[in-house]
Design a protein that fits this description.
Length: 230
């Protein structure tokens, strides 16, 4: 099995968390949230390096001891949006990484990712011509809002999935798609590939792999990790 690398965008401000500290550094079971994300990725043997993209203005990262994370490389090249942070990271990587290397982009804000699922994803997609993403099928009935929180429609949910990360693509293919398609509609890596007409594969993820977005997500993440004995 060939190796792969991880790219972890961690340059966001966490505005929906409404905290002065960016959410990736909020306390989660006695450690910064991002520690759990990096700890999970370090358990994936097929990941040769784990590159993390932080903001050039980040004043938190250097306050922690990261010595235990031997495969970690920090890049202070975060951008104004998630997609820009990912593209900046890919462009830096491309100076010393083969253009056909598999890159797994994983949100710093998803600390409960299961290393076994990441292992499975790398094995499943190894020979895929495009790549793919972890995702879960939509489970609830979907309502479209009109005015004043009144429902105008029940939207069909058949075939709809909620995208998660990691999202695994080849370095040059992903960088090219982000360069060409960059815009507010590019909220994940797959959307950049889709804009070019590619059809990334959907791989079954897990509801435990939540993105910490709002304050209650931090509580959920803490319950999930505590149940795993972390
Ligand atoms: N300019 C940005 C914005 C986001 N991210 C990262 O992308 C991931 C997913 O983004 P999101 O949950 O939207 O994080 P924030 O942008 O920090 O949150 P918010 O949208 O609430 O401000 C996070 O790990 C975040 O740090 C990034 O690297 N660079
Ligand atoms: C990439 C992502 O995690 C897929 O669900 C998500 O789109 C990133 O977060 P955002 O809130 O859309 O920026």
């Amino acid at each position: 099995m060939m190796g792969a690398i991880a790219l972890v965008p961690a340059a966001g401000s966490g505005s929906r968390m409404a905290s002065d500290t960016p959410k990736q550094y909020l306390d989660l079971l006695g450690k910064p949230l991002i520690w759990h994300t990096l700890n999970a990725l370090h358990q994936v043997a097929a990941l040769e390096r784990i590159f993390i993209v932080i903001s050039p203005e980040d004043e938190w990262w250097d306050g922690y001891d990261w010595d235990g994370f031997g495969r970690l490389v920090v890049m202070r090249c975060g951008g104004d949006s998630r997609a820009e942070s990912v593209l900046n990271g890919l462009q830096a990587l491309s100076l010393f990484t083969p253009s056909d290397a598999w890159v797994l982009v994983h949100d710093a804000a998803r600390p409960c990712v299961d290393p076994a699922q990441v292992d499975g994803m790398i094995a499943t997609l190894a020979d895929d011509p495009v790549g793919g993403i972890l995702a879960v099928p939509v489970a609830d009935t979907l309502k479209r809002e009109g005015n004043d929180a009144r429902i105008t429609e029940t939207a069909p949910r058949a075939g709809l999935w909620q995208a998660q990360t990691p999202q695994m693509f080849r370095l040059a293919m992903l960088a090219g798609a982000l360069e060409t398609g960059m815009g507010p509609d590019i909220t994940d890596e797959a959307s950049a590939l889709e804009k070019q007409g590619a059809q990334p594969q959907l791989l079954m993820g897990s509801p435990w792999n939540l993105k910490v977005t709002y304050p209650h997500d931090l509580q959920l993440a803490s319950l999930i990790l505590a149940a795993r004995g972390e």
